[in-house]
């Protein structure tokens, strides 16, 4: 970015193996513990926005290094936060940047919200004028992704027949970007109800038309690429390969009821087979008929130097297993809640008041189990 006399406002070094602005986030490492503590990451557009927020005590914040937010950036944040809040300017560029980021959040299965600043403000000016408490309040009231996107498209196109057609065409890629089938179904039901259209408009272009069934690939095909799994599933697979003695604990947390990627499900099935035939030791996995890619992955994992040593007190292996068990239980509860929400929308559309009330009660119970209150 150049100032009036041609001097650069931001000046990055040339891209290299070490520096890649599409992959790196400003102060991600220094702010990682704050993001873990809050379980939330704030993303702002500019470096000076970030610095002013940090000076005022808001330190769970990162920013791209002079480039647009990418899917790789979002993937990096998944290790530190359960939720990402985009804190962007209210001008056209800020709104466009927020909309452009939505597919990345959906694809990475990260809970995302958008907090739009008052007109004429950026995070820098807003925190100086109103203080950190006002920023916190704005973040707490941030809009869910679906609501933000829908409202922005309605403002742009209106709800005429032509406007609805344009809205559907812009929402379709967002629905397709969602990696979770339950999330896609819920988004389709939600947007269809908002627009007063059949879900078929999102599924196949015309109501009543069903999308073609997905092509199933063999277990040793591209779908089994373990290194390409979503982050949390890859952690699960790595943990089970290295510490298969904890398989029972994860099964008790609901591992068998999870909708896992075929590659993950295959590794789990192999480990269950091992557990049924004797001591479940990592090396015994290599005695089973693995595909070439799977065998290479297991060997690479087993020969990699350990990142930590197990200790008698505060065993980090056990702690990681418990964290994965917590994730399994939470994910199952979310899927249950998403299914109930879709049933609520359908019952509401049909005017089934008693059914809606019963489903709302079940959804509330599900949320209480998931959050603990």
Structural account:
The protein starts with 24 loop residues before the first strand and ends with a helix. The protein is an alpha/beta fold. The chain is built from 16 helices and six strands. Strands 1-3-2-4-5-6 form a six-stranded mixed β-sheet, sandwiched between helices. It has helices at 32-38, 47-55, 71-77, 92-107, 123-130, 132-140, 145-157, 161-177, 181-195, 200-203, 231-242, 247-252, 262-277, 292-302, 316-349, 353-371, and strands spanning 25-26, 40-43, 61-64, 83-88, 111-116, 143-144. The protein is globular, with a radius of gyration of 23 Å. The chain folds into four domains: 25-149, Dna Topoisomerase Vi A Subunit, Chain: A, domain 2; 158-203; 222-306, no CATH class; 328-371.
- Which CATH first-tier class of the largest domain would you pick? Alpha Beta
| Fraction of residues in helix | 40-55%
CATH topology of the largest domain: Dna Topoisomerase Vi A Subunit, Chain: A, domain 2
- N- to C-terminal distance: 48 Å
Give the SSE map.
Blueprint: E1 25-26, H1 32-38, E2 40-43, H2 47-55, E3 61-64, H3 71-77, E4 83-88, H4 92-107, E5 111-116, H5 123-130, H6 132-140, E6 143-144, H7 145-157, H8 161-177, H9 181-195, H10 200-203, H11 231-242, H12 247-252, H13 262-277, H14 292-302, H15 316-349, H16 353-371
Parallel strand pairs: 2-3, 2-4, 4-5
Antiparallel strand pairs: 1-3, 5-6
Helix pairs in contact: 2-5, 4-8, 5-6, 7-8, 8-9, 9-15, 11-13, 11-15, 15-16
């Amino acid at each position: 970015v150049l100032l009036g006399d041609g001097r650069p406002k931001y000046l990055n070094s040339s891209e290299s193996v070490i520096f890649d602005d599409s992959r790196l986030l400003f102060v991600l490492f220094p702010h990682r513990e704050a993001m873990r503590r809050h379980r939330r990451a704030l993303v702002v557009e500019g470096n000076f926005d970030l610095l002013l927020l940090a000076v005022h005590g808001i330190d769970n914040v990162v920013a791209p290094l002079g480039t647009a937010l990418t899917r790789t950036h979002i993937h990096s944040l998944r290790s530190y936060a359960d939720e990402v809040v985009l804190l962007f300017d209210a001008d056209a560029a800020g709104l466009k940047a927020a909309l452009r980021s939505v597919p990345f959040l959906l694809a990475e299965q990260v809970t995302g919200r958008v907090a739009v600043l008052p007109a004429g403000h950026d995070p820098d000016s807003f925190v100086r004028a109103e203080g950190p408490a006002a920023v916190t309040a704005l973040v707490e009231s941030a809009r869910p992704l679906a609501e933000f996107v829908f409202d922005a498209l309605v403002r742009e196109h209106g709800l005429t027949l032509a406007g609805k057609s344009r809205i559907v065409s812009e929402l379709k890629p967002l629905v397709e970007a969602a990696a979770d089938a339950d999330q896609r179904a819920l988004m389709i039901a939600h947007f269809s109800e908002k627009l007063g259209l059949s879900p078929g408009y999102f599924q196949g272009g015309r109501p009543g038309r069903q999308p073609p069934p997905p092509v199933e690939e063999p277990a040793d095909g591209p779908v089994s690429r373990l290194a390409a799994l979503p982050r949390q599933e890859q952690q699960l697979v790595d943990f089970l390969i290295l510490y298969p003695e904890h398989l029972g604990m994860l099964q008790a947390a609901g591992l068998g009821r999870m909708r896992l990627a075929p590659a993950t499900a295959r590794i789990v099935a192999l480990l269950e087979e091992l557990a049924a035939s004797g001591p479940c030791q990592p090396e015994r996995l290599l005695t089973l008929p693995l595909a070439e890619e799977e065998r290479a992955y297991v060997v690479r994992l087993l020969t990699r130097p350990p990142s930590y040593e197990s200790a008698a007190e505060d065993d980090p292996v056990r702690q990681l297993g418990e964290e994965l068990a917590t994730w399994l239980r939470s994910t199952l509860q979310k899927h249950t809640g998403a299914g109930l929400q879709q049933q609520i929308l359908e019952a509401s559309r049909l005017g089934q008041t008693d059914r809606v009330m019963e489903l709302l009660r079940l959804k509330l119970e599900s949320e209480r189990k998931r959050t603990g209150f």
